[in-house]
Write a structure and sequence with these properties.
This protein is mainly beta. The protein contains four helices and 28 strands.
Length: about 475
């Protein structure tokens, strides 16, 4: 019933005008933590106690070590984030976003006794912490005031309170138990159990779209620094125009911000029927550790957080299982994501990924993530995707997969793991050359694969919003 009400609301709003079409649903983008995100959740512990976000006066929140918390419930859960730091880039610092409030942990000033509170809606210097590795797998949390975070576990009146008040010792390992924190994973990237068995057989006719919508920080794209509601409206409208009266069975999105996922779901439902849009972040490994944190999107032009940067997958609302994977990626670079979902009732599965960028040159300077010709990562990413696809196929699903695989036809050998027993929508037949219309400038780097057998049609459509064109596979 709730879904039908949301669908009706979205349809009415869309009919009013493009400007106001998503005014009401945009509140979903401001909800504490978008429920659609497959980002890893974490619990923070100190001296054996879980750290809790507790409600305070006037809706304020404090962090404290909680001796009564025996398992990490919502008040004890956080997502980890990293944003751009001038001169150091992503991955140099980590920020904590509370699952309970949706706000980032901030260090108060000296007048507030350097308390840690979850009151920040965006990240800046006061929301950034340096993870200092200690013996035994622990960390010291070095705050922006140059002091380590400590839990007041002695006679301090506000027992268990977290404050950034310990001066750096001669060696970080000289920190006491009340300054030694550990991070504990809570759950996984979406479902932690194997996919359920299919209960139906997949139809031969499928309609699948993949589109890198360039909705983060590329000034050449129209969605640069755009609010989530604007992204949702414009992307949905462009897809609707491209699809006409056809309803997509799945849509793969790349380069999209977390808080656009739910508004986009509502916008798509106004013409495509009940949909479920899930999000998977792109990670960075925090310097000096093996801990991975979500790369944050740039804020909107008026300074509002858009959440994490990553990919999204839109599938019919009958989806009951989804799972994200962090693909093998070059160190100190973006840790690339893959996101899969299954529809047991129709026997179909879909996997969307954004592979590492290959080498390219700007003003004679080589850039990109996967630039070592002797040790490329894209073949490993393709193999990781294929392993997941084979698992779903063996479970009885007909699987369609692809995305922005950042590989031109000249380097298509990097994707060789994806082709056996399958067909790419740019191939008229399985044995045809690996060719297709360009999707990014003069290059084809976006792909959709499916099973051999059906007749494939592959369209490339310019949605005008992005530096990529959308690619559309249909089978019959």
């Amino acid at each position: 019933m709730l879904k039908r009400i949301r669908l009706l609301l979205a349809a009415v709003l869309t009919a009013l005008s493009t400007v106001v079409a998503l005014a009401a649903p945009s509140a979903a983008a401001d909800s504490p933590v978008p429920p659609s995100s497959a980002g890893q959740r974490w619990a923070l512990k100190v001296a054996g106690y879980y750290v809790t976000v507790s409600a305070g006066a006037n809706g304020d929140t404090k962090l404290r070590a909680n001796p009564t918390a025996t398992t990490p419930q919502t008040p004890e859960q956080f997502t980890l984030h990293t944003d751009w730091v001038t001169g150091a880039g992503f991955g140099s610092k980590v920020s904590f976003r509370s699952e309970a409030t949706g706000n980032y942990v901030t260090t108060e000033d000296d007048a507030s006794a350097s308390l840690l509170r979850t009151r920040a809606t965006t990240t800046g210097a006061w929301e950034r912490f340096t993870l200092k590795p200690l013996s035994g797998g622990a960390f010291g949390l070095l705050a922006s005031n140059g002091k380590y975070v400590a839990a007041e576990l002695g006679t301090y009146p506000d027992k268990g309170l977290l404050r950034a008040r310990t001066a750096p010792p001669a060696s970080p390992d000289d920190l006491g138990s009340w300054e030694r924190f550990t991070l504990e994973k809570v759950g996984g990237h979406g479902s932690t159990s194997p996919a359920p068995a299919p209960t139906g057989q997949a139809p031969v006719a499928r309609d699948v779209v993949s589109w890198n919508v360039c909705a983060n920080n590329n000034e050449s794209c129209s969605l640069d620094a755009a609010p989530p509601a604007t992204v949702a409206t414009n992307v949905s409208n462009a897809l609707h125009q491209a699809m006409g009266t056809r309803r997509p069975d799945a849509i793969f999105f790349q380069e999209i911000c977390e808080k656009a996922a739910k508004p986009l779901e509502l916008a798509l439902e106004s013409w495509a029927g009940p949909m479920d849009v899930r999000f998977m972040p792109t990670d960075y490994t925090i310097a000096g550790t093996s801990i991975q944190a979500q790369k944050d999107c740039d804020n909107t032009s008026d300074g509002v957080s858009r959440g994490s940067f990553g990919i999204a997958l839109a599938v019919p609302d009958s989806n009951t299982w989804y799972q994200g994977t962090v693909l093998p990626s070059p160190s100190a670079k973006e840790q690339r994501p893959m996101l899969c979902a299954v529809m047991p009732a129709e026997g179909s599965a879909y996997c969307n990924a954004h592979f590492s960028s290959g080498p390219y040159f700007v003003d004679g300077e080589q850039r990109g993530d996967d630039t070592d010709p002797d040790n490329p990562y894209r073949p490993r990413q393709a193999q990781a995707m294929r392993t997941t696809v084979d698992t779903l196929t063996e479970a009885g699903y007909t699987t369609y997969y692809g995305g922005d695989l950042n590989t031109t036809q000249n380097d298509v050998g990097h994707l060789s793991a994806l082709y056996p027993d399958h067909q790419e929508c740019g191939q008229p037949t399985p044995s045809s050359p690996h060719t297709g219309a360009p999707t990014d400038g003069n290059n084809k780097i976006d792909y959709i694969f499916g099973p051999q057998g059906p007749t494939y049609t592959c369209r490339v459509v310019d949605g005008t919003l992005s530096d990529h064109r959308m690619i559309n596979l249909t089978t019959s």
